[in-house]
Amino acid sequence: MRFQKLTLFVSVFLACSFVVAQPTVQPVNIVITPNHDNWEYAMGEPSTFTIQVLKFGVPQKNVMVHYQIGPERMKPIKEDSVLLKDGRFTTSGIAMKEPGFLRCVATAMVDGKQYRNLTTTGYDISKIQPVVTKPADFDAFWKSTTAELAKLPLDTKMTLLPERSSAKTNVYHVNCQGYGGSRIYGILCIPKATGRKYPAVLQVPGAGVRAYGPDLELADQGVIVLTIGIHGISVILDPSVYADLVVGGLKSYFTSNMDDRDKYYYKRVYANTIRSNDLIFSLPEFDGRSLAVSGGSQGGALSIITASLDKRVKYLAAMYPALCDLTGYAANRAGGWPHMLSANNVANTSNPKVINTLAYYDVVNFAKAVNIEGYYTWGFNDETCPPTSFYAAYNSINAPKQASIFHDTGHWTYAEQRSRYTNWLLSKLKQ
Fold first, then answer.
1. Taking burial as the number of CB atoms within 10 A of a residue's CB, which of 5, 88, 199, 417 is the most buried?
2. How far is CA 102 from each of CA 26, 35, 380, rounded to the nearest angstrom?
3. Which of 292, 317, 308 has its CA nearest to residue 376?
4. What is the mean pLDDT of residues 117-138?
5. Which residues are catalytic?
6. Which residues fall within 8 angstroms of residue 40, CB to CB, at 6 or more apart?
7. Are 325 and 319 in contact, with CB atoms under 8 Å apart?
8. Of 7-11, 241-245, 299-303, which range is least confident?
9. 19-127 belongs to CATH 1.10.3720.10
10. What is the pTM (predicted TM-score) of this model?
11. Could you state, in order of their start, the residue ranges of all structural domains in the chain?
12. Residue 292: which of 430, 146, 429, 431 has the closest Cα?
């Protein structure tokens, strides 16, 4: 049983964390090529997809391929199987009549193993508008929450972790008083060199329950880095503890009390990102002004939310944000992770209390108030956080923004993509 729990923990970690590496290379690869180099189309313009199956880079003939084409996460418009007599096949053209994304998914059996790949084309993506609406008392609700938070003492506790520190950076396990009687735990990196002040980054986490380590790559370049967990537990425990929580008390935490806006799990989480910034501002080594927030997936969502709620944040960097336009499914299109309103969750979809609560936590409604410069990166092939959902949020941002698109990426990043992301952060913080 212990081994099963640990295996499940590892699986959830790989699925939910802030993934920065591309998928494992395999001997067989299904290549799906759209007929536009930039993967983007005008409304009504047909997308065609050329499908090839490569083995050791060589096109394979007489392989049977099954493919589906349709809006992401929706019922396919076209579905068929075809034999690749000449090693390739081009689908008939299909167009979208509304802004969004069209996805071709192909599978093939080669040498007794099934392979799968997908390619997604975008239609007038700058015109994608959110389905979710902003409650009239949205701003008042969060203003009241942050006012409650401000009354609490910080009560910071820091423990040096010399075994995790570097020649240039001290690493600490920290915790402080959070919202609603909770504690916030994280890993804090502070440059060792004295006599100067440093910029800072708050790193907010992707989904899951796990330990965290120091970001010495960033910290060693002269940046304070605070990496937080969101569950109110230490982030340096034995892996078996997190494995137990994944199948126990924190299983599906993102749906906990989501029929009550005041008790929903994420209320404490959102508030505690602000309290984490309080901790940074309390540090004598911090320069008092150069603060960025950064994260991917759930962390991408928390980055946008933190920047919206806390005007002390000066720069925002987010990868494929989750929790965007959650009610998109009501308009028969993909909504954001964790898809609690998809067709598989009819009970939630038909519960007005759930719909009401989620409007107070949807990234779209925070994005509208973002007023700082931001860097955003993602790909069109993300199946965890559908691009339709995060474009609904991105298009709602009126502040200066830069989107770095690596079209074929899903819920992962290339090393080059990550490098650009980090370099953008450093360029802003070191101004």
1. 199
2. 26, 13, 10
3. 317
4. 98
5. 297, 382, 411
6. 121, 122, 123, 125
7. no
8. 7-11
9. no
10. 0.94
11. 19-127, 138-429
12. 429
